[in-house]
Amino acid sequence: MKILAFAASSSSQSINKKLVTYATSLIENAEVKVIDLNDYELPMFSEDKERELGQPTLSKDFLNEIHNSDAVIISFAEHNGSYSVAYKNIFDWSSRINPKVFQDKPMIMLATSPGESGGASVLATAVNSAPYFAGNVVGSCSVPSFYDNYDFELGQISNSVIQSEIQVVVNKLPQKTR
Ligand SMILES: Cc1cc2nc3c(=O)[nH]c(=O)nc-3n(C[C@H](O)[C@H](O)[C@H](O)COP(=O)(O)O)c2cc1C
What CATH number matches the domain at 2-177, 1.10.8.640, 3.30.230.10, 3.40.50.360, 3.30.70.100? Predict the structure, then answer.
């Protein structure tokens, strides 16, 4: 089964990309595709830009990646309590083509940050709003203090309690996607 995964970040060093990649490694028998939002960079959305550019190919491509998956896993970077610009921009462009951006896919939403809150604010925003965009969030988890809880050499969460929490969340994906 096909899993689409990405970090809602445009950082080349994204800790959310590390987290989402780790989470996908816990899913057995899955074909995982990790995309990078840097490959979906568009001008800052405005209705004026939309009149100028119409429906950009990159936003259609983004929607197609979701369409072609059986489940979606996103890990959100938190910028000032909310979404990164990179994520909000491709989301806004895409929502003008299909307001049901998540297309009824089962989803897992994650977040992490260097701080103790672990991106809990942006994660709550994403989880609470997902139903308005046809997102079926089956599980979510924020990882606090990422640098204390991740082994960069091994490429995995080092805290066994958090490891278990992520495994529990990943196991909530419907059986056919595992
Ligand atoms: C503009 C900006 C705002 C930030 N705001 C928050 C915040 O509100 N809460 C938080 O926990 N971390 C905040 N951070 C720190 C990010 O969590 C940190 O940069 C993290 O690495 C972002 O995730 P990423 O590496 O996946 O991009 C902020 C960072 C930037 C650059």
Answer: 3.40.50.360
Closest ligand 1 atom, residue 9 Cα = 27
Report phi then psi at 79, rounded to 5: -115, 115
Tell me the pLDDT tens digit for each residue of 100-140: 999 999 999 999 999 999 999 999 999 999 999 999 999 99
Q: Give how far Cα 37 sits from Cα of 48, 61, 91, 138, Å.
A: 23, 12, 10, 23
Amino acid at residue number 57:
T
Instruction: For residue 106, report the phi and psi dihedrals to the nearest 5 degrees.
Output: -65, 140
Is this prediction's pTM over 0.85? Answer: yes
Q: Which of 113, 125, 146, 148 to mutate to test the pocket of ligand 1 (most atoms within 8 A of CB)?
A: 113
Kindly report the backbone phi and psi dihedral angles of residue 9, in degrees, each rounded to the nearest multiple of 5, phi listed first. Answer: -155, 155
d(CA 27, CA 73): 11
Ordered by start, the domain boundaries in the chain are: 2-177
